[in-house]
Design goal:
Elements (H helix, E strand, L loop, with lengths): L5 E3 L2 E3 L3 E7 L2 E11 L2 H19 L3 H17 L1 H12 L3 H22 L5 E4 L5 E9 L2 E5 L7 H12 L3 E5 L5 H13 L7 E3 L4 H10 L5 E5 L2 H13 L3 E5 L4 E5 L5 H13 L9 E7 H16 L19 H17 L2 E4 L16 E4 L6 H4 L6 E7 L2 H9 L3 E2 L1 E5 L3 H10 L4 E4 L15 E2 L2 E2 L9 H4 E9 L1
Parallel strand pairs: 7-8, 7-10, 8-9, 10-11, 12-13, 12-18, 13-16, 15-16, 18-19
Antiparallel strand pairs: 1-2, 3-4, 5-6, 6-22, 11-21, 14-15, 17-20
Length: about 475
């Protein structure tokens, strides 16, 4: 990728600071050197977005549809190339990288269609000769702050609705994945977005992100990332009366009942806990197993783990790639040591692995004999570390599943319609899966959680309108 730049006010611009983008599968491979925007750059992007808003917010729905469709079409046409770049940069397997890229395309195409499906309401007044119209209007300048673990899908499900509903965007991607942000931005620009409507400001959260949070001309901020940073985002937005939306992670449970199909249960747990190297906010890192199937389940899990192929993300046959970077790698290893010190049994995995190239390779770890007060059971690790806890029955399993400050996703493996139905109704999570991995949500349905996992309106699908628009009620005397 030659001479990448930020995109501000309709121009590709250099920056005085830059950082290397490193391949976690091969730390000798530098993908590129990417500029870091300054506070002044970010302020200029916000001003450009503000200036572009009046015209863009009143543009025709056909124009917005056509632009978003061109974006989706190009992403889809280049899915293999972009998926490969994604896997090289973030460490997902090539199949996962291509799959995420396709999802991003589908999101843009969905919101292209939403442009021409915008609707309102016309209601009678309780007073005679008065009509009421209820419509939705765009917010203004939207600050978009995204994480590294889904470097094209999460930006897509924030940028696409923002543009579809007539907002202007200042996009700050995570420092670890600038290449995918740059590639997506090039596609958006080529699609014909007017100058100022979309701006890319890659850089540090403390400088770029903080400027977005504090600037009075930013109307709303959508953020996906850690709980600690999410709280800072909330505090800053409340201080300046901005609308904000937070997606912050989880410690998701996966319940396995005595009547479960053991093969289904194991595959769900493996996928939920270890695929994408466990670096998904919807990953199930707590597996809660009733005592009648517990030992059989653990044996089957450890046997299945022996077959997992952990290697370079781009190598054919790889099922799990590396941890994303040194900091996350060290955090994962630290939690493995914490689990041992707390008295949990490391039943399988947890070793540092060596491969052909230097990278952050870690064997997925499975802990048993886990207590509900252990840190590996309660705290989000964001790596391939799964804690298994034994319970007596379904009732105890449900209580354990809900015993968390998080509430993003929750899953169960059972062949009982009674328990499946009860769990769907009583699991304290925004998304519930029955006999499916907890990670994996369709692009056209709402995404989000409860409690400490999320704040504000849902993302994705038609529910996205709740955040990216504001309601107006207009009266007319006839």
């Amino acid at each position: 990728m030659s001479n990448p730049k930020n995109y501000i006010a309709g121009e590709w611009v250099d920056a005085t600071d830059a950082a290397d983008d490193i391949n976690p599968s091969n730390t000798n491979d530098v993908i590129g050197r990417f500029p870091r925007a300054s506070k002044a750059d970010t302020e200029r992007a916000i001003q450009a977005a503000k200036a572009a808003f009046p015209a863009w917010s009143r543009s025709s729905v056909q124009e917005r549809h056509d632009i978003l469709k061109r974006i989706g079409d190009e992403i889809l046409a280049r899915k293999d190339e972009l998926g490969r770049l994604l896997s090289r940069e973030e460490g997902k397997t090539l199949a996962e990288g291509i799959g995420e890229t396709v999802r991003a395309a589908q999101i843009f195409l969905f919101f292209a269609a939403e442009c021409v499906r915008l609707a309102g309401e016309k209601l009678p007044s309780v007073r005679p000769n008065i009509d009421i119209e209820i419509t939705r209007e765009p917010m203004g300048v939207i600050g978009i702050i995204t994480p590294w673990n889904f470097p094209i899908a999460i930006p897509a499900w924030k940028i696409a609705p923002a543009l579809a509903y007539g907002n202007c965007v200042v996009f700050k991607p995570a420092d670890l994945v600038p290449a995918m942000a740059h590639a997506l931005s090039e596609i958006i620009v080529r699609a014909g977005v007017p100058a100022g409507v979309f701006n890319l400001v890659n850089g540090r959260g403390g400088e770029v992100g903080q400027t977005i949070l504090e600037h009075p001309d930013v109307a709303a901020v959508t953020f996906t990332g850690s709980v600690a940073t999410g709280r800072k985002v909330a505090a800053a937005c409340i201080g300046s009366m901005k609308k904000f939306q937070l997606e912050m992670g989880g410690k998701n449970p996966f319940v396995v009942l005595d009547d479960a199909d053991i093969n289904v249960a194991v595959e769900c747990a493996i996928n939920s806990g270890f695929f994408s190297t466990g670096q998904r906010c919807t990953a199930s890192s707590r597996v809660i197993v009733t005592e009648g199937i517990h030992d059989k389940f653990v044996r089957a899990m450890t046997e299945r783990m022996k077959t997992l192929v952990i290697d370079d993300a781009l190598k054919p046959g790889t099922q799990i790639g590396p941890v994303v970077d040194k900091n996350q790698f060290e955090q994962d290893l630290s939690y493995i040591e914490i689990g041992k010190a707390e008295g949990a049994i490391l039943a399988a995995g947890g070793e540092i692995l060596k491969r052909d190239n230097p990278g952050f390779y870690l064997a997925p770890a499975l802990f048993t004999d886990v207590g509900r007060d252990m840190r590996i059971y309660r705290e989000e690790i964001f790596g391939p570390v799964v804690a298994v806890m034994r319970v007596r029955n379904y009732e105890e399993a449900l209580l354990a599943a809900n015993d968390t400050p998080f509430g993003l996703a929750s899953g169960i493996a059972t062949t009982s319609l009674k328990y499946a139905s009860h769990f769907k109704r009583n699991a304290e999570a925004g998304m519930v899966m029955v006999n499916l991995p907890t990670a994996g949500v369709d692009y056209h349905v709402p995404f989000g959680g409860r409690k400490g996992s999320s704040y504000g309106p849902r993302e994705q699908g038609r529910y996205a309108a709740e955040f990216y628009t504001q309601v107006k009620t207009a009266y007319t005397f006839a």
